[in-house]
Amino acid sequence: MSVTARQWLERIRALDLPDKVRIMNVCGGHERSITQAGLRSALPSSIELIPGPGCPVCVCPEEDVYQAMQLALREDLILVAFGDMLRVPVNLPKREIRSLEQARAAGADVRPIASPTEATRIARDNPDRAVVFFAAGFETTTAPVAAMLAEGAPDNLSVLLSGRLTWPAVAMLLDSEEAGFQALIAPGHVSTVMGPEEWEFVVRDHNIPAAVAGFTPESLLAAMYSTLRQLQDDRRFLDNCYPEVVRPGGNRSAQRCMAETLEVTAANWRGVGVIPASGYALRSHLAAHNARTLFPSYEDPERKRIGQMPAGCDCSRVVLGKIYPNQCKLYGLACTPRSPIGPCMVSDEGACRIWWAGGVRDRADTEVA
Predict the structure, then answer these.
(1) Residue 188: which of 142, 139, 225 has the closest Cα?
(2) Are 116 and 144 in contact, with CB atoms under 8 Å apart?
């Protein structure tokens, strides 16, 4: 018989916990489930749930968004991208085109898609036009892009890849002087692809309890209970609380496709900076499908602000778990889902957008760490 969410809460409340325990999640889907289910208000007040670097749209480099915009505006091509990317603003004056959505309104052929198969279909339906797939995402969305390339993409389809690995950002936080959390909830979908073993470093190198979770309140609470119990018993290990989907070793077929088509490289994270071995790039034998080599670069050294958020935007601190979304100075004032300033208010996986959709309207002042 499965354990219900209410029963997991009762087990958590029965634990002998310290005055304050901070648990970080690194998945926008986790944060959305936590907020929609009201788990923060249901848990003991000593437990803080901190949203971390779980939004690929939020950390996609500003220069990559700018490059995609300029390709769409200046080249005779079709640019396709996952829907959230269309509204991400770049650092330009308001009188100029600042997003792919605005580029589309100005006449560029920009089309939102939900999967690489749509990019392939559009390329085949338009054989006389170049199609560029602006592919931003973590391992879960990068794996299907790799499969598309491994299976053989249409000749007129190229990829502007902005893929990122999840774990290096967590490693960077843990290697810093103040990590700001005592337990980690690892992303179930990433672990499904890459294997839960990717998160063993959290326990092995930092003596911090970790648990892989799915997206239901039951799975999330099970993972929270596991990490809290580990703290109480002073016994650390990586627990898999999503065994119905996450298997040891992950998805070997997906990993083979990624190894065949992609290489790991240092990469810039918007608002964070360059993190070693945290990005994906197309391998050299796929140069004919690499938009970065096929088309002119439109980077502008006078305009480019590598790694910066818009003025006044605290998205980078939200992404790193340093503040809660409603502690940003712009939250709910200048920055709302209707008129977003930073990427965390754009994406459905951005913590600011999730909190706003969850009804959080009041601003707070106390920082996480």
Answers:
(1) 139
(2) yes
Q: Which two tokens stand for residue 342?
A: 């930073």
| Number of residues that this document lists for the chain | 369
CB atoms under 10 Å from CB of 198, counted, come to: 21
Kindly report, residue by residue over 5-31, the tens digit of the pLDDT: 999 999 999 999 888 999 999 999 999
How far is residue 329 from each of residues 60, 333, 352, 354, 364, measured CA to CA in Å?
Answer: 22, 8, 12, 17, 10
Place of tokens 């790694």: 307
Among 280, 340, 342, smallest CA distance to 309 is for 342
Q: What string of DSSP letters covers 164-208?
A: B-SHHHHHHHHHSS----SEEEEEHHHHHHH-GGGGHHHHHHH--
Instruction: Tell which CATH classification among 3.40.190.10, 2.60.120.260, 3.40.50.360, 3.40.50.11750 matches the domain 5-55+170-240.
Output: 3.40.50.11750
Contact 131, 156 (CB under 8 A): yes
DSSP string, 279-295: EEEE-GGGGGGBHHHHS
**What are the E-state strand segments in the chain?**
21-25, 47-51, 77-82, 110-113, 130-137, 157-163, 183-187, 210-213, 238-240, 262-269, 273-282
Distance CA 44, CA 314 (A): 28
> In this predicted structure, what is the pLDDT of residue 300?
67
Domain ranges of the chain: 5-55+170-240, 57-165+250-294, 315-356
Q: Which of 267, 270, 266 is nearest to 346 (CA)?
A: 270
Q: What is the pLDDT of residues 180-239, one digit of tens each?
A: 899 999 999 999 999 999 999 999 999 999 999 999 999 999 999 999 999 999 999 999
CATH ID of 57-165+250-294, from 3.40.50.11740, 3.40.50.300, 3.60.15.10, 3.40.50.880 = 3.40.50.11740
Q: What tokens does 326 get?
A: 């409603």
Read off the pTM. 0.93
The Cα–Cα gap between 253 and 251 comes to 6
Q: What is the mean pLDDT of residues 30-39?
A: 97
**Alpha-carbon gap, residue 104 to 102, rounded angstroms:** 5
